[in-house]
Structure formats: C-alpha cells, structure tokens
Amino acid sequence: MTTLIKNGTVVTAGDTVKADVLIDGEQVSMIGKNLPGEGHDEVIDAQGLLLLPGGIDVHTHLELHVSDTVSSDDFFTGQKAAAFGGTTTHIDFAAQPVGGSLRQGIDERHAEAAGKVVIDYGFHLTITDLRDEVMKEIPTIINQGVTSLKLFTAYKGRMQVDDATLFRAMMTAAEHGMLIMVHAENGDVIAELTSRLLAEGKTEPKYHAVAHPALAEGEATARTIALAGIAGASLYVVHMTCEEAVEQLALGRNKGLPVMGETCTQYMFVFEDDLARPNFEGAKFVCSPPARRPKDAPILWKALADNTLQVISTDHCPFWFEGGVKGRVAGKELGKSSFHKIPNGMPGLEDRMPVMWHNGVNGGRYSANRFVEITATNPAKIFGLYPRKGTIAVGADADIVLWDPEKEHTISAKTHHMNTDYNVYEGMTVKGWPARTLLRGKSIVVGNEWRGKKGGGLFLRRRPNAEIL
Q1: Residue ranges of the domains in the chain?
Q2: What CATH superfamily classification does 55-369 receive?
Q3: Looking at residue 128, what is its pLDDT?
Q4: Are 434 and 402 in contact (CB under 8 A)?
Q5: Which residues, given as ranges, of the chain have pLDDT below 70?
Q6: CA nearest 32: which of 17, 45, 46?
Q7: Helix (H) or strand (E) run with residue 55 in it
C-alpha cells in the first residue's frame, strides 16, 4: 500500500522544506517535490500544513499501581489520547517486583499492555531491589529490548536506593552501554521534613512543596552527576524542575560528563501557589518533584532552547480528582487527610505537543526545528530508536503528524481524551494543532475522528550504546 502526502512542508530537527512524502507500507520511501499523484492507494493533500515527526514521550506512567490505587489511564486510553495530541511513541516503565527479578517485572508489564496498545511503545526498567543476583541479571534485559534503568534517590523506605547501590548500577550499566535514569531528590531530607510538617499539623496540599525543597533536588542532582562521572556511566536526569538542579546539570555537561536531562511540560505553567488553591483543588497539581516558583520557568525554557536540557516529556501519571465514584478507581481524594497520602502525578500526555508548540514556537522561545528536536528527534536518539523514529527520512517509520499551525483550540477536560476529570491547562487557548496523525503509514486520528485499533501498537526493542547529546 502506498500513500502520498502532497503539498506539505516537512519540518525536521535540521531542515524545513516544502516537499511531498511517499509512504510505501509502513515506511517513508521518497521525499521530493511534485511527486506523481497517480497510482497510489491514498493521496492526502497537506496544503497549508506542516509535516512533523510523530512525537515521542519518554516518560509516562500508564496503569501505574501506586498509593493504594492505579493511575487512571490504561494502555488504551492513554495511548489514544497521545495520538490525538500528535504523539506516536512513548516509553513507559516496568518495575521490578520487590523480591522478584527484572524479567518478571518486564513480563508483567507486557501482560498489562497486551491487546490494548494503539501506538508504539517501549519500557524502561525500574530497579527496586538490587540484590547480587539482580545485578547479574541487568545485562540480560538488553535482549528484551530494554536498555535503560531507572533508580530513585527519593521515596525513602520504598524506592530510594543508597549511593553504593546507585553507583554499582552505574558501573554495570556503563560496562554494557545502558542508560541510567535517576529521579533526583534527597529522600532523607524529604522524609525528615515531612515528619516535622505532619507533627505540626501542616497537612494541606501546599505543604507537599515545602517537604520537597528545590535545594534537595539540586543536591541530589549534583551527587548523581558526580557518581555517574566516576562510573563513566551515561546519565539522564528525569523531570528537572528548578534552577538549583539545572545549574548542576550545566556544570556536569561543561566538564564533559555524559549527562543529559529532561523537564516536563507542567513545570513551565504550574507553580507552588497552585498547590494552595482552596477546597483541596491544590491536590490536582501534586507531583514529585513538585511545582516550583515562577522564576524557575524562564530558566527551564532557556535550558530547552540552548540544549542544557535535551528533552521535554510529561511524566504523565493521571488520577481522578473525584475518584471512587461512578465506577472510578480511587484518586486524589486519598490524600484529603494529609498531603503525603495524595497520589503523585498529573495528566499531560495529550497536551504536550500543542502546549509546547504554542508557548515555545509561537512564543519565540525556540524554532519549529528545535521543537521537533526536543519532542521527537532527541528522545529517539537518546533512547536507541533513531533513525527509525524521530525524523521524517527515507527508511524511517512513517510516523507523521500533519500539523495545522493556524488552528486554535482551547484545552479542556470536557474535550480531552485522557481518562481523568481535570486538565492542568484548563482554559489555555493554543494555536497549532494536529490535523491528522499517522502511525507507520496509517491514519489513526483524522481531525476529531479516531481510526486506530486496539492491538495496533508495537513494542519497540531499543538499542544500547545510544547517543549522548
């Protein structure tokens, strides 16, 4: 089957060019001007539209079991929402069960995704219990297509690992060309501050930010970067939020260390004051690390523009605000008695591309090419998917978003496709919106119409020894 997209403007990380794109089966087979329109199974007129590589979100949490509940988007609803927002690939997390093996965690995650997936996806492996036999198992998961390991310096008593454990994992990862991902906050500091706040009766959502100070993120980021430098390990610091952390990443990169970082869309728009909204509304914005100060947003925008930060993700982890009713699983209301019981996370998988286009490209913060770089190309390169994913090129998968740069849309929970009852960007009007989303040559979203099918997504086996950007 061949599909010809005519009269569009192709935008990649490096080029912007008026061109037609011919798709043969699942891949791009030709890019050129005035390609013949006869003899194809489908011809799509992209006059006035941009052709962008499908977005890649490398930090999501679908069906995440946490805080006595589960995140409200499963692999079908979450991936469908992603497609409506122009994202065609995401990487989620498989977690090692406590006392179990890494392979067990991967197998369990495959079982949860089976039969539901509608876009392409991969897994990172979250390590929770690094016994000697688990350390020996790490290289074997490369054969499962999983080449990145996530560890935590936060969540004391649950996920937090000590420096020795983190360093051992880094040494092993470096030996086998794997990438270490770290949630960098000082879990000991957070635990102590949380205990003191609770003892003082300070339980409202706003105290979540007080318990997670920016300096605790900066300290953990610096320490993690230093350990990676000693180990010679490639490091990717997830969901960076503040000046204190970004300046440590910049310092490490200036020293030539193989360290990279991402921020998430919400950190440019949600701030500490939002956690203080009345009537428990602040719980909607509780995540870890927390929303920071308005002064941090310009620093994050600049870091995305100048490549101090390489990727924009979402950390999509939605919960119902009013959970436990109308057949819903429990949600944010679990934390009404205290901030430390609020399920951590916000929705955003569907909104990332339009929000970052409107506020980044239209806002003059970076070019359309840089937008493609941080939403698709860099994620593909860092996580071993390039050039199959992340660009529009001959031989690449035909994951293409026909983007209407003139279409305006007001974001709302009433119209989004994510399985949650609120939207972080409620009421934000954006200019720039997906008109059509193709996954491997097939249109899965056209306007407001869903054309995808359950089971249509593919698990992506990723390569080790990926690029350091």
Answers
A1: 55-369
A2: Metal-dependent hydrolases (3.20.20.140)
A3: 86
A4: yes
A5: none
A6: 17
A7: strand 55-57
